[in-house]
Amino acid sequence: MSTPSICNGSYPTRSAASKSKSPKRISSAIAKCSTFPYFVDRASHFREDSAWIGARLNDPTTRLIVIYHSAVLCHEDNAALPCFLSPDRANIDLKASIFLGQVDGITYFTLSIHTEDEAHHFSRAHQATFKDYASSAPVLQFEYRDLVSLACFTNYWHSRHRKCGTCGSATTTGSAGHRRICTSTTCAQQYFPSMDPAVIMLIEHEDRCLLGRQQHWPEGMHSTLAGFVEQGECHYKLKRNEAQTNRATHFDGEDQLGW
User: Fold this and answer.
1) What domain range includes position 189?
2) Average pLDDT in the chain
3) First vs last C-alpha separation in the chain
């Protein structure tokens, strides 16, 4: 099964960036990449173009990411490598597919399946297995994480908005999967995906950094500190709170770098 390359350039590394904390130097390093590693062209101007969307779903170069209950279809012998299926290999109705965007001219969709029988069918047909995204994300190949996280989030959002929060009627999808619309003609409320703002930070002291972990994580897995921003809370105050909560008793707020 072929998996298209997503980024043709080298990524800017922390060691290169840490030599100088000047944003201009870091921006210059990022600009050297042929494709910025976090860049997925959402191509939102095509979301209302049903003819274009239909043509892409019949394009053999298009790739599908299959999701089952927040689990990603991955290669059976390599959990770090998601399966990217061409439309003809999916062998399922693609009308419910969600348009994710394009990377290097390749169009990506995601498709959510809902039954255990469908999950077994995909696993057998493609010698693959569904891996829970929350536990597999740290080991996914770096260049695929943006697409897979976008696919998981979008499918999760749809699963939570099948009913109108105003009148209780069923909702239907619009804008190639980026909108849900109440089917009641007297309501017709529209819903759009939203995310809670959050910060993530790397706290350093001399040649060491502060990491945290949760009890249910696999042995040896750690993470930089992060937290959700509450209403009226600035990102700087949140960083101080998270640092103090995780035993960093002194936080030097004058020496920060972020973009």
Assistant:
1) 161-194
2) 79
3) 37
CA dihedral 76, 82, 88, 89 (to 10 degrees): 0
pLDDT in tens, 35-77: 444 478 899 999 999 999 999 999 999 999 999 988 999 998 8
Q: Are residues 151 and 185 in the same domain?
A: no
pTM of this prediction?
A: 0.70
**Number of domains composing the chain:** 3
Residue 252 counted as domain residue: no
Question: Could you give the CA distance from residue 106 to residue 176 in angstroms, rounded to a whole number?
Answer: 17
How long a stretch of residues is the chain?
A: 259
How wide is the angle at C-alpha 164 spanned by C-alphas 169 and 53, nearest 5°? Answer: 100
| Residue 83 and residue 204 in one domain | no
Residues 136 and 161: their CA atoms lie apart, in Å, by 25
Q: Quick check: is 250 in a domain?
A: no
Q: What letter represents residue 209's amino acid?
A: C
Same domain, 99 and 134: yes
Closest CA to 94 of 119, 69, 63, 73: 63
